[in-house]
Design brief:
Elements lengths: L5 H15 L17 H20 L19 H16 L9 E2 L6 E2 L1 H22 L8 H19 L16 H8 L9
Antiparallel strand pairs: 1-2
Helix pairs in contact: 1-3, 1-4, 2-3, 2-4, 4-5, 5-6
InterPro entries: CHP03086, DinB/YfiT-like, Maleyloyr_isom, MDMPI_metal-binding
GO molecular function: metal ion binding
Protein name: TIGR03086 family protein
Length: 194
């Protein structure tokens, strides 16, 4: 069985494209994750993708703590990212679209397949946004992906706020599009600049 997850594919493409756009001097730039540099955000995002893969397959997760990324230089950031997103995509490809219980590395540690893949896509997509805006590039999210991710976010983010994984939600504003609504819900300022 191979399940195609278009949302996850789009989020992974956004993350990989954001990484490809990072210049050699950009890795230590600040990001919307106020305590982390671009390199640390990538280490976190890649680690989370490996964490999702490990939860599904029972295999090994990242060899580093994604919540305490070192920020050390990554020899080949594109390859580093590709390994992580490929592991996650391959793991999710084994999950039926109607699966009611899929192990995941976020509370409550078991989600239905659609919500679980949305959580995995959320992590890749929001960090793609972080990296893109930190390096002065256009935001990479489509309105469709943002809308789909927001559905999953509303099911998993509140408990994670207590752990500091997400800042408090920002108030919506008139005229918010789907991407802006997602960013505000995740506690990110859509107008953030380095």
């Amino acid at each position: 069985m191979t399940t195609e997850w278009n949302l996850l594919a789009e989020a992974h493409t956004a993350l990989l494209d954001a990484v490809k756009g990072v210049g050699a001097d950009d890795w230590n730039r600040p990001t919307p994750c106020s305590e982390w540099t671009v390199a640390q955000v990538l280490q976190h995002a890649a680690g989370d993708q490996l964490g999702f893969a490990a939860a599904i397959t029972g295999g090994d997760g990242p060899s580093w703590n994604p919540f305490a990324p070192s920020g050390e230089p990554i020899e080949d950031p594109v390859a580093f990212t590709t390994v992580a997103i490929t592991a996650a995509a391959d793991a999710w490809a084994t999950v039926a679209a109607d699966a009611a219980e899929v192990p995941v590395p976020v509370p409550p540690n078991v989600l239905d397949a659609v919500t679980g893949v949305g959580a995995c896509a959320l992590d890749a997509a929001v960090h793609a946004w972080d990296i893109a805006v930190a390096t002065g590039r256009p935001q990479p999210l489509s309105p469709w992906a943002a809308s789909e991710i927001l559905v999953a976010a509303k099911q998993i983010v509140e408990p994670l706020r207590a752990w500091g994984a997400y800042a408090p939600a920002l108030a919506p504003a008139d005229g918010d599009d789907a991407v802006t609504a997602l960013l505000r819900y995740l506690g990110r300022d859509p107008e953030w600049t380095a």
